[in-house]
Specification:
Elements lengths: L1 H31 L10 H16 L11 H21 L8 H17 L2 H16 L11 H72 L4 H33 L14 H9 L7 E6 L9 H21 L5 E9 L2 E8 L16 H12 L3 E6 L5 E8 L4
Parallel strand pairs: 1-2
Antiparallel strand pairs: 2-3, 3-5, 4-5
Length: about 400
């Protein structure tokens, strides 16, 4: 908290100094009386260059439009400054250069070297450095000793700023590589655990279920009709669990054959399939989907909606296995996707305590929904039962 406050104070001080220096530029231009176009009001060219530069430097990051890229921010003010220099040389009239334009061009040089895409770094950096180094010759083509001295100082400033920005860019790259490697190692460790332990136990469930189905063939016909659908459901669930784990391991290892195949599985169409295989004997699961809900929603929203339904149904199986009626709703709420899962259970379950989970499912789900700008709520319904409700802001892709 203290370091953030210090950074905020330093940022405010820097902005204040830059604005004050820019005001000095305009005052210099007004007092100098230079007649660069428009001749009736010589302060306007300098004011225009300073305003363009300030907009590029001070435009808040959270409010910048997408088209205002780092390369555009750094190139346009440099070109404006260079055009003013060229105009002063054409009319052979000296334009006084103030500290504001110098500070703006140095700041833009820093931004260009540190933040521009690799193929634009050199172009934007040269533009900013060139605009800065030509400032001393505005209207003075004699290249006097004073001008040469200012050029040397300009070269030193360019070297210092570009060197600092390049160093910080290299540190950012090293940090990104270190974080990427750490995440990859963690993902590989998780993938190994899934493959070696979880998949092993699920495979055991699948094999034992298949054996049990074979054993029921020796039982009377009425017992076969009762047991076989239950065992078939267990076999199908185990098979789907293994397939999901294989896909998850592929995502974690990043070794899938196609980029699309590596995406986490789950969309609005998959919700219907999820519900079909969920109900146990005596349960009714109903899907009510608003016709206004489109299949063209962004994949990340569809995947999150799928996870909401999946987690809610899993919690019903863990904590409310006595539920008789379960209702899943997909509704278009004035441009937002509303997903809700409600049951009438009273908390009866025969699952062992170890299978109840640690309460982290809804926590992780809430974080996922919030990351998409949505909201997740879960709580008891009026009378009996529980409801999970998520709302997502959506844009059709």
């Amino acid at each position: 908290m203290k370091s953030a406050s210090v950074r905020g104070c330093a940022h405010g001080l820097a902005v204040g100094v830059l604005l004050a220096a820019s005001v000095v530029d305009v005052l210099y231009a007004g007092n100098d009386g230079a007649s660069v176009l428009p001749p009736a009001n010589p302060v306007w060219p300098t004011l225009a260059v300073v305003l363009v530069g300030l907009a590029a430097v001070l435009w808040p990051a959270g409010r910048r439009p997408e088209w205002l890229t780092p390369q555009l921010r750094t190139a346009v003010p440099a070109l404006a400054s260079a055009l003013l220099t060229a105009a002063s040389l054409l009319v052979r009239e000296e334009v006084v250069v103030g500290p504001g334009e110098i500070m703006i061009l140095l700041t833009l040089l820093f931004i260009a070297v540190r933040h521009c895409p690799p193929r634009w770094v050199v172009v934007c950096g040269v533009l900013d450095a060139g605009a800065l180094l030509t400032l001393p010759v505005r209207g003075d083509v004699t290249l006097s000793s004073d001008v040469m001295g200012l050029e040397i100082i300009g070269l030193l400033l360019v070297g210092l700023v570009a060197g600092l920005a390049g160093y910080l860019r290299s540190m950012d790259y090293r940090r990104t590589v270190a974080v990427t490697e750490t995440r990859r190692s963690e993902r590989l460790a998780i993938a190994a655990d899934l493959h070696d332990f979880v998949a092993h136990h699920v495979t055991g469930i699948l094999v034992q279920t298949q054996v049990a189905r074979l054993m029921t063939t020796t039982r009377p016909q009425d017992q076969q009709q009762e047991l076989d659908p239950v065992l078939a459901g267990i076999e199908r669930a185990a098979t789907e669990a293994l397939a999901s784990m294989r896909r998850t391991v592929g995502v974690l290892r990043d070794t899938g054959p196609e980029a699309a195949d590596r995406r986490p599985v789950g969309d609005l169409a998959g919700i219907a399939e999820l519900i079909e295989g969920f109900a146990t004997p005596g349960q009714q699961v109903v899907l009510r989907r608003d016709p206004a809900v489109s299949d063209r929603l962004p994949h990340e929203v569809q995947a999150a909606a799928f996870r909401v339904v999946q987690e809610a149904l899993t919690n019903i199986r863990r904590h409310a296995a006595d539920a008789l009626h379960i209702e899943v709703r997909l509704r278009d709420d004035t441009g937002r996707l509303e997903v809700s899962v409600a049951d009438d259970g009273r908390g009866g379950t025969r699952l062992p305590a170890a299978a109840h989970g640690g309460g982290f499912g809804l926590v992780g789900l809430k974080e996922r929904v919030n990351a998409l700008g949505g909201d997740l709520t879960a709580g008891p319904r009026g009378g009996a039962g529980w409801q999970v409700r998520a709302v997502f802001p959506v844009r059709k892709s």
